[in-house]
Specification:
CATH architecture: Up-down Bundle
Order of helices and strands: HHHHHHHHHHHHHHHHHHHH
Family: Belongs to the amino acid-polyamine-organocation (APC) superfamily. Amino acid transporter (AAT) (TC 2.A.3.1) family.
CATH class: Mainly Alpha
Number of domains: 1
Membrane topology: Multi-pass membrane protein
Oligomer: single chain
Protein name: Aromatic amino acid transport protein AroP
Shape: globular
Distance between the termini: 29 Å
CATH topology: Amino acid/polyamine transporter I
Strand content: under 5%
Number of helices: 20
Keywords: Amino-acid transport, Cell inner membrane, Cell membrane, Membrane, Transmembrane, Transmembrane helix, Transport
Number of strands: 0
Main location: membrane
Radius of gyration: 22 Å
């Protein structure tokens, strides 16, 4: 244990900025955009905008609490303090379980991406190598985690900016005059080819591209000068969404008829290929591989901190609350990483068959985390009003926007029941909540 028995504040502002930005950019954008385009057509950019605005509001709620109390465990700690023991227990273990599944899915993705270059390399070997390397990195200190995440996020961001710039270059250099060079936005069934219903279904799908963005709240316990760095990181979430999601989709939809995007290759490969870069597929594969490793890195980090926070509240075994001399929750890292070894075994026995299974189970947990943040914030602000306490980073439009977010997230559950492959996640929700309740009762015997 370090001298203060606390996590060390080793994350600088540039680390937090990239962690927040990297959390909003993952394989959902790089590979998942084709399915959302099929649902909404050119209006997919509107789906990302609406979803992004709602996520920004939720992040502002989390930010207000994190600046007021920058602790490890984040919204699980706040849920326990301002809502009750079971909501805190539920949110902490739900978040941990969600990220275990996400990390398993990302390890599986790593194996798939590596086979692009090494077709004979078994998926489980690539997954195991990634697991060992990232676990070792996290065991050293939080600064190394932040530094690694900084550079991996930078690769993702550079790739997206490059794709946007190349796309704009193609549009501006088009032999067609304005506005004909943008006619793909309305020429194939209109801007909303599948109507409002198609847009609504697309919103339900794109919300899971934002999963992990709440990681910025988990970092609060190890952020240098959290009063300054957390508001900066969160306030920049909205323009990042506008540039990296809405901007990318706008360029893609203007470049090609929406029905053709992603059918023969990834939408992003099409941009590279169109400007004569023969290594387009290799460049994209490197970027998505980096994105998958980045998410796994963040998953191990956040899971170990969540276990540390749960142990501090006596909601997890006490041994998980111990720190190394460098202020690192080593046991939480090893437990979280060790459980993802199941993924290596699954990839050995069922290669190529578990990625979507893992993601379909994990997706619903993200909305539980967001709902917990919104409701806990209502309780937090009520407590502040009752005690006359002023906060430093107020969430806008309280409480109206809280109720709007609750209605929005519940509607996402309803829409998911209408999408094949996502409906399973909604149907297992009651069973999952029951398991958490049983675990809570057992822990409180």
């Amino acid at each position: 244990m370090n001298e203060n028995g606390k996590l060390k504040r080793g994350l600088k502002n540039r680390h937090l900025q990239m962690i927040a930005l990297g959390g909003a950019i993952g394989t959902g954008l790089f590979y998942g955009s084709a399915s959302t385009i099929a649902l909404a057509g050119p209006a997919v950019m509107l789906a990302y905008l609406i979803g992004g605005i709602m996520i920004f509001f939720i992040m502002r709620m989390l930010g207000e609490m994190a600046v007021d109390e920058p602790v490890s465990g984040s919204f699980s700690h706040y849920a326990t303090k301002y809502w009750g023991k079971f909501p805190g227990f539920m949110s902490g273990w739900n978040y941990w379980f969600n990220y275990v599944l996400v990390s398993m899915a990302e390890l599986t993705a790593v194996g798939i991406y590596m086979q692009f270059w090494f077709p004979d390399l078994p998926q489980w070997i690539a997954a195991l190598i990634c697991l060992v390397a990232i676990t070792a990195l996290n065991l050293i200190n939080v600064r190394l985690y932040g530094e690694t995440e900084f550079w991996m996020a930078l690769i993702k961001i550079t790739a997206i900016v490059l794709m946007i710039v190349l796309g704009l270059y193609i549009l501006v250099g088009s032999p067609q005059p304005f506005p004909d060079n943008l006619s793909n936005l309305w020429s194939y069934g209109g801007f909303l080819p599948n109507g409002v219903w198609g847009l609504a279904l697309a919103i339900a799908v794109v919300m899971f591209s934002f999963g992990g963005i709440e990681l910025i709240g988990i970092t609060a316990g190890e952020a240098e000068n959290p009063d300054k760095t957390i508001p900066q990181a969160i306030n920049q979430v909205i323009w990042r969404i506008l540039i990296f999601y809405v901007g990318t989709m706008a360029v893609l939809m203007a470049l090609w008829p929406w029905k053709e995007v992603g059918m023969e290759a990834s939408p992003f490969v099409q941009i590279f290929m169109s400007v004569g870069i023969p290594a387009a597929a290799h460049i994209l594969n490197f970027v998505v591989l980096t994105a998958a490793v980045s998410v796994y890195n963040s998953a191990i980090y956040s899971n170990s901190r969540m276990l540390y926070g749960l142990a501090a509240k006596n909601e997890a075994p006490k041994f998980l609350g111990k720190l190394s001399s460098r202020g690192v929750p080593v046991r939480g890292i090893l437990v979280s990483s060790g459980i993802t070894l199941i993924c290596v075994a699954l990839n050995y026995f069922f290669p190529g068959k578990i990625f979507m299974l893992l993601m379909s189970i994990a997706t619903i947990a993200a909305t539980i985390s967001w709902l917990t943040i919104v409701i806990t914030h209502l309780k937090f602000r009520a407590h502040c009003l009752a005690t006359g306490k002023a906060t430093k980073f107020k969430s806008p439009l309280y409480p109206l926007v809280n109720y709007l977010c609750i209605a929005f997230l519940l509607s996402i559950w309803g829409l998911m029941t209408q999408i094949e492959g996502m409906d399973l996640a909604v149907y297992i929700l009651p069973a999952w909540l029951l398991c958490l309740w049983i675990g809570f009762k057992y822990q409180n015997k």
